[in-house]
């Protein structure tokens, strides 16, 4: 048996696609919603999910709260802007049929950016641990959270989590501003400095890594945009870290 946990807030353009991809594999779907004011709840109700509205606790804690409501030991975690590819659905159906042989499972994620599937820039293969025994793992981290497992037994599933990230460049820039603030707070909390060296050179290193070493140039125009905004986000993160230090 498998529970699926999803967190949402104003995800009317994405959540239907996500829920549709889960119909053949989920025994329970729990949606933790941050008081959406669009059609998110109505769409979820069409699929008969357990819809719970809750105050935002941060990415990790909100997901852990959702996990605590799950009836089944194994949890699949998705974001509202993600869906399962047909191949991954088949892998999960087979896994349920044969029984869970590992404590956790990884799978690749393929991301769509402004309508283009991104194959480089460090975005693919983007291996994610998204299926696990809830008694042996939990979400941890302020930004780019991940599941921390008590058991090393991990297996890999064929197929992709399909991720619709940004529909336009402005959305990406806005999110970069949010993530850079979270990253700065995390730096400050852990004693990492926003030195002039970091402000000047970390963005350049980030761009060269994603555009050259991770062959972002092969993704054409949007590859350049992605790598440039990643560099900009790095610049903002260390600039905001320095600002926190001065305060």
CATH architecture of the largest domain: Alpha-Beta Complex
**Morphology:** globular
Query: What kind of sheet is the major sheet?
Result: 9 strands, mixed
The CATH class of the largest domain is Alpha Beta
Low-pLDDT ranges: none
- The mean pLDDT is 95
Classification by helices and strands: alpha/beta
CATH superfamily of the largest domain: Spore Coat Polysaccharide Biosynthesis Protein SpsA, Chain A
Distance between the termini: 51 Å
Q: What's the CATH topology name of the largest domain?
A: Spore Coat Polysaccharide Biosynthesis Protein SpsA, Chain A
| Fraction in helix | 40-55%
Radius of gyration: 19 Å
Tally of helical segments: 7
| H/E element order | EHEHEHEEHEEEEEEHHH
Strand content: 25-35%
């Amino acid at each position: 048996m498998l529970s699926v946990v999803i967190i949402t807030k104003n995800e009317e353009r994405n959540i239907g696609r996500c829920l549709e991809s889960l119909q053949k594999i989920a025994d329970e779907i729990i949606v933790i919603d941050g008081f959406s004011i669009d059609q998110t709840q109505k769409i979820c109700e069409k699929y008969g999910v357990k819809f719970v509205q809750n105050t935002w606790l941060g990415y990790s804690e909100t997901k852990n709260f959702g996990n605590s409501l799950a009836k089944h030991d194994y949890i699949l975690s998705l974001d509202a802007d993600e869906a399962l590819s047909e191949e991954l659905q088949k892998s999960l159906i087979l896994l349920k049929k044969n029984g869970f042989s590992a404590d956790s499972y990884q799978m690749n994620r393929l991301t769509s950016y402004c309508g283009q599937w991104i194959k480089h820039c460090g975005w693919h293969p983007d291996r994610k641990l998204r299926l696990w025994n809830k008694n042996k793992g939990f979400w941890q981290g302020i930004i780019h959270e991940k599941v921390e497992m008590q058991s090393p037994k991990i297996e890999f599933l064929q197929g992709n989590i399909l991720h619709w990230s940004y529909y336009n460049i402005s959305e990406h820039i806005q999110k970069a501003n949010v993530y850079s603030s979270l990253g700065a707070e995390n730096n400050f909390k852990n004693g990492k400095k926003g030195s002039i060296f970091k402000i000047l050179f970390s963005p350049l290193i980030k761009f060269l890594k994603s555009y050259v070493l991770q062959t972002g140039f092969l993704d054409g125009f949007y590859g350049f945009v992605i790598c440039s905004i990643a560099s900009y986000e790095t610049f903002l993160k260390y600039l905001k870290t320095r600002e926190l230090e001065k305060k």
